[in-house]
Amino acid sequence: MSQEEAVGQPFEHEIRVTWGDCDPARIAYTARIPWFALDAINAWWEEKLGGGWFQMELDRGVGTPFVNMTIDFRSPVTPRHRLLCAVRPVRLGETSVSFEVLGRQDGVLCFEGRFTCVFIAVPRFRKAPPPEDIRAVVEAHLN
Amino acid sequence: MSQEEAVGQPFEHEIRVTWGDCDPARIAYTARIPWFALDAINAWWEEKLGGGWFQMELDRGVGTPFVNMTIDFRSPVTPRHRLLCAVRPVRLGETSVSFEVLGRQDGVLCFEGRFTCVFIAVPRFRKAPPPEDIRAVVEAHLN
Amino acid sequence: MSQEEAVGQPFEHEIRVTWGDCDPARIAYTARIPWFALDAINAWWEEKLGGGWFQMELDRGVGTPFVNMTIDFRSPVTPRHRLLCAVRPVRLGETSVSFEVLGRQDGVLCFEGRFTCVFIAVPRFRKAPPPEDIRAVVEAHLN
Amino acid sequence: MSQEEAVGQPFEHEIRVTWGDCDPARIAYTARIPWFALDAINAWWEEKLGGGWFQMELDRGVGTPFVNMTIDFRSPVTPRHRLLCAVRPVRLGETSVSFEVLGRQDGVLCFEGRFTCVFIAVPRFRKAPPPEDIRAVVEAHLN
């Protein structure tokens, strides 16, 4: 039994890939993929915390700017199937958090990425440990 | 002699259309065109006022939200040529301004649009007459 | 009783507006709105015809390039609520179709737009009447 | 003397960052950065080969899909200064090429990324060594 199964279904964000996302090669343009992945991470926060980056920053003064993204592109993304992005936190530091995003279409892994953010206190844009409830939400989903 | 010639060369903003702007029909995706047109209007402000929407809003507390856009698409936009967007104000009201944007590639008119904005005072998001220097800049280019 | 009620619920496409769609004024950037509206029209085709622009063009050789878009922006779009885009065809010509898109958040009309497309036969990019089943799908939803 | 100086000025692509590229934190949205970087790589091909991805794929049947991107975000990107993206190839394999992109504003390093593409022969979407002139262009700029 995998760890993923042990902790239940991972969070999955569904994206409707369209004509406008595709380039003349008839697949989603490479620069759209990080956008999709970030949409999925934002959706993870919405689902787990009750608000995405917009609410975190404006209502709570907590920002999570990215310091690194690494993406392997495995297979083209097309409008033929919905894009399912599985998101989970994979590391939580004192002032940072890393997410893994796996994008699949019709059972095929299309891309896998790792994204690291730091927590900052708005408006000074300085690294700061996250509030306890945010830390707790991430910890609850680490595996 | 056209009015345009009478007042000198209109402002022109050059856009490098790329692979990533195109859809599977191998032409710029329709939803990219308004984006290009807005880039051109912002560039007009940069050129004429010394700062675009970012500087107007953050440094001066003046916003210019759009209330209408109307675009006729005449001919496909492609990466084969630079896209030249001619911008000029065509109407100035008490609290509003309208711009015309003509997009051309290789001498061919690709789209023509008209965009109307209202002036607002930030942060109350209320309509307000623009500062005198902004009004003067627009008036100087009306024709 | 309005016509809309007479013919049942209109098609509605839900969009999750996010942080990344917003500009420094903390509302969706103007140039994102036409993109949202086109996503909604594409979703209408997916729902009614079984395939969006991607499938229409690649599988059936039917393109529907836009010749005009006109949008009135009524109220800011934000990530506070889902954006519900009601789409319906409002005119069907020999070789063209017009759609109305109404975008609402939390019961408030945010924008209303009208979009006109022509039918073309790929790959010659020439205007042509649409196939009968496509015409029938549009006609069934005109009101 | 650095290697860069030894071989002359690196290729630099200038990007006008605007209001619409920024999120509510008033800096360019993270997902715009890979887009900027890809624009810069495409511009490198335009400059060095005489045509970007559009021309490579449509006119010559050569595609260069990405297999990996890794980006470190060092400092926020804003509309206050032009974004200068220095691009250079850093590795050329039998059927792949890697580019480094360094984004700077006002002398400050904002991001650094590495992007790896494979060469494919269109339309079969299979890895293939690049044509000799393309290989030569990359080799001439490796350092």
Automatic annotation (TrEMBL), chains A, B, C, D:
InterPro entries, per database record: HotDog_dom_sf
Alphabetized SUPFAM superfamilies for the sequence: Thioesterase/thiol ester dehydrase-isomerase
Pfam families: 4HBT_2
Protein name: Thioesterase superfamily protein
The organism of origin for this protein: Sagittula stellata (strain ATCC 700073 / DSM 11524 / E-37)
